[in-house]
Request: fold
Amino acid sequence: MTFHLADFLVHLSNVLLLVSYSVRDMLWLRWFAVAAALVEIPYFLVQHDILWPPIIWAAVFIAINLYRIVLIYMERRPVVLSKDEQTLYDLGFKALNPRDFLSLMLTGEWKDARAGDVVLKEGEPAASIVIPISGSAEIQRHGEPLTTAGPGFLLGSVAALTGDPSPVGAVFVRPGRYMNWRLPMLRTFLDKRPDVRATLAALANQDLAHKLDRLLSR
Reply:
């Protein structure tokens, strides 16, 4: 390899860097940055005294960019939801993109309810937020039924938002399956994801309005 060709590689490397700065897609930016570093390495190798410091730094930049490229490809993989997750997503979480929704699911746990299972105790602070995807729960106050909570109904959201003891209780009257988010884990997750918090707050407001409408129409 002649030094004339080596000089050409330096120019090509800088052109690739210039292109990387002009693209909007982060994936392509990183690929062009990797290509620029790879093209420039031969220039350092053919010098009279091999220039090891820039070679080492180029290798470091290549490794970092390749690592980030792998992460980007992983983040862009299609999200596959389970049957239960898809049911819950369709019930009221379409405002979230599927990947954010899946992250939210990882903070909770799926549970099966039998008739008579209490998921919210009147007069006690809510420990969890519950959303059934099947079956139904009866909302009670002083032991008297107020309304029925079916699939997609948020249980414990009002008490969770206020921190006050729950004014109502909830007991399953028909066996079903539900997602259970324990509040400490949910709050930790939402503190790190304000975008998801805003979406959930809007969902909780819609659910509260729906509950009031049902109570007033009785």
The longest strand covers residues 176-182.
